[in-house]
Amino acid sequence: QVQLQESGPGLVKPSETLSLTCTVSGASVSSSYCYWTWVRQPPGKGLEWIGDIQHTGNTNYSPSLKSRLTISLDAPKNQFSLNLNSVTAADSAVYYCACSGNYWGQGALVTVSS
Amino acid sequence: EIVLTQSPGTLSLSPGERATLSCRPSQSVNSGFLAWYQQKPGQAPRLLISAASIRATGIPDRFSGSGSGTDFTLTISRLEPEDVAVYYCQQYLTSPYTFGQGTKLEIK
After folding, report:
1. Residue B95 to residue B19: CA distance in whole angstroms
2. Pairwise CB contact (< 8 Å): A101 & B88
3. Spatial strand order in the sheet of A18-25
């Protein structure tokens, strides 16, 4: 059973960088088992696909976020991470990490506010 | 970018009834690279169906998926109160792997 857990600050100031880490158990981020994925959901709204990374390090990003987004792997720690810079209030959301669509973390609420 | 349009926006039915949810991609999603998710309030999404029609592990056979190209359907054959949720479709044929806007299912 693959389990994922998001971690990171719950409050980020405007113009700063939002950084989240997803810790994986039950599978290796170095395997081809999943596309390691980030999805977000603004309060009261629908799901938005952010991007993913494969075990090779290849990434796919949402075009609307691509200029501000980096997704990376940390194989020794069995983690993958999201960095989104120059954030605004529109980036406030619950951020989910997922193993393709099969397994999901519980989600981390991130609020962008001064 | 493939846009997914889900209908209806909200569906209100009684227990035991049949629910039919639609997902229409703006471009053909070949080979059924389409998934359905259930999201209950305060919870993460849960995979119901992948490849348009394959139930995920542990999903009751009341849930079924069908369709191809630009017309996909999620059917819940006998509604139970626990099925109250928002249902999303997602295409994973072409990046960005977009979601539909969701259908909210209410039980009368």
Report:
1. 30
2. no
3. A3-7, A18-25, A79-84, A69-74
Contact A63 B99 (CB under 8 A): no
A61 contacts B96? CB cut-off 8 A: yes
Question: What is the nearest CA distance from B83 to chain A, expressed in angstroms?
Answer: 18
Q: What distances in angstroms separate CA B79 from CA A43, B49, B62, one per listed residue?
A: 27, 17, 8
Taking an 8 Å cut-off on Cβ atoms, the answer to whether A47 and B97 are in contact is no
- The pLDDT score that the predictor gives to residue B37 is 98
Residue of A nearest to B103 (CA): A46
pLDDT at residue A33, as a whole number: 87
**Distance from A13 to chain B by nearest Cα, in Å?**
25
* Other beta carbons within 10 Å of A50: 24
Instruction: Please calculate the CA angle B82-A102-B70 and round it to the nearest 5 degrees.
Output: 85
pLDDT at B47: 97
How many residues are given for chain B? Answer: 108
Q: Which of B36, B71, B40 has its CA nearest to residue B55?
A: B36
For residue A2, the model assigns a pLDDT of: 95
The shortest C-alpha distance from B48 to chain A (Å) reads 9
**Least confident range of A31-35, A38-42, A67-71, B54-58:** A31-35
